[in-house]
Design brief:
- By secondary structure, the chain is mostly helical.
- The protein has 2 domains: 216 residues, no CATH class; 210 residues, no CATH class.
- It is built from 17 helices and 2 strands.
- A two-stranded antiparallel ribbon has the order 1-2.
- Strand 1 and strand 2 form a beta hairpin.
- The longest helix is centred in the last third of the chain and has 38 residues.
- It starts with a helix and ends in a 7-residue tail after the last strand.
Length: 433
């Protein structure tokens, strides 16, 4: 039942991202859409820097603390995480604004007002992301998708669409203003849900709450941060690269194709949202067989559904692009097909990243992501310059396939679990046959 509800929540969020992109494509020129998506990519990157891996660390620790009867340890951990994230968010915003407004013009980069607003959103955006992680930890994964980029985009798409429908012109700055308002609204709703759950952060200092302290040292969070940063490079930085190497219009085409290809990842995101805390609990109980069963069953379901979506894109992808975004965006069709194939391999590999993160092997994920980042960083400028958005998509698809090969190797080496659709093999011990 929880997976079904989470699927609905993830579906609404995924549709919301497409809604935002469709609305922007209808009300603004492709170059202006490019400014918006590049600014959003920068916001997510700076938020990743501000979080410093604390959202994933908090998910792991809070999920374990929540299962215990003493809530004091949970509240102390929660309060410490929020205090640190907000502080880092403010520092990141200040540094980024200074660099963008003062340093960028020296390199011939004109400052866009819309981008400065996106940068200012970093502290609030970190809170929304952390709320999403916290909701997973307290057994509310069905709510978590609404407190990520997808959830905020859903609200922003509706607001911008309504504003245009009543006769208002929508510029990139106005669109970002709507996005900022929706971010604030999302944070308020998250606070209300957590308060109703009885786990909203106390106003007292962490030490006054009692309970065991949570370790937030860099040695604990750095693995999660590296993984989050590398994930941003893989999923978001290409938009900035395409915009810089080619044009803002090509950045818009790539962003549209990238967002539509995420439909292939839909089921993986659902299972990961639900199962991530469970992986941590099962690992603490040393139940590797159960972890392996979850990985095999989820990857099987993901493979079947993701394959159907890829087939749909091959047959009707160009018609969907025209219907949703307009005739100009049929130029994104080749990029959509290439990205969909890469996402199919990524999805069929299952929750390999999540299970490594939740079992304390987050440092091993870094090596797989570094492989992907090297491919993207080296191939995107070259292929993008030659083939536009489709070339950038080819670089990303290749990176995703290579990344999952390395991740599957680490799952087997560290946990002794070799799995795939319809297949499972668990070693008697994680280090030897």
């Amino acid at each position: 039942m929880r997976i079904f509800v989470t699927a609905i929540s993830k579906g609404v969020a995924a549709v919301g991202i497409l809604l935002l992109n469709a609305v922007l494509a209808r009300v603004m020129a492709a170059a202006d859409v490019g400014i918006f998506v590049m600014g959003l990519a920068l916001l997510v990157g700076l938020t990743t820097l501000a979080k410093g891996g604390l959202d994933t660390a908090a998910l792991r620790h809070l999920a374990i603390e929540y299962k215990r009867t003493d809530r004091r340890s949970y509240r102390a951990a929660e309060r410490a995480v929020y205090a640190r994230v907000l502080r880092f968010g403010v520092y990141t915003t200040a540094a980024a604004e200074i660099l963008y407004l003062l340093v960028a013009p020296a390199f011939g980069i004109a400052a866009e007002p819309a981008v400065t607003v996106f940068i200012a959103l970093v502290p609030l955006y970190t809170v929304v992301y952390l709320q999403g992680a916290q909701l997973k930890a307290v057994d509310l994964p069905q709510c978590a998708p609404l407190f990520e980029t997808a959830g905020v985009s859903t609200l922003a798409g509706v607001v911008i669409g309504v504003a245009h429908a009543v006769g208002n012109d929508v510029s990139p700055l106005a669109a970002v203003g709507a996005y900022a308002a929706c971010t604030a609204l999302t944070a308020g709703v998250g606070r209300a849900i957590l308060h109703r759950r009885g786990v909203a952060s106390s106003a007292r200092a962490p030490d006054a709450l009692g309970g065991a302290p949570i370790d937030l040292s860099w040695s604990v969070t750095r693995g999660y941060f590296y993984n989050s940063a590398l994930t941003w490079v893989i999923q978001w930085s290409v938009v900035l690269l395409v915009g810089a190497v080619m044009s803002r219009q090509e950045a818009a085409y790539y962003s549209i194709a990238h967002r539509m290809s995420y439909a292939v990842m839909f089921v993986l995101l659902v299972f990961t949202s639900v199962l991530s805390p469970l992986y941590a609990v099962l690992h603490e109980r040393r139940q590797r067989e159960e972890i392996g069963t979850l990985l095999r069953n989820s990857s099987t379901a993901i493979c079947l559904i993701a394959g159907a979506i890829v087939l749909l894109f091959f047959v009707y992808g160009d018609d969907l692009l025209v219907a949703l975004f307009g005739a100009d965006y049929v130029a994104a069709y080749a990029a959509l097909l290439i990205l969909s194939l890469g996402q199919f391999v990524n999805a069929s590999a299952g929750s390999n990243t999540a299970v490594l993160n939740m079992t304390g092997h987050q440092d091993t994920v870094k090596s797989a992501m570094i492989v992907a980042v090297v491919i993207i960083g080296g191939a995107t400028p070259w292929l993008g310059a030659a083939h536009g958005a489709a070339g950038a998509a080819a670089a990303v698809a290749t990176a995703l396939i290579c990344q999952n090969i390395v991740l599957s190797f680490h799952v087997y080496r560290k946990l002794g679990i070799l799995y795939g659709p319809f297949y499972l093999r668990v070693r008697k011990s994680p280090t030897a046959e």
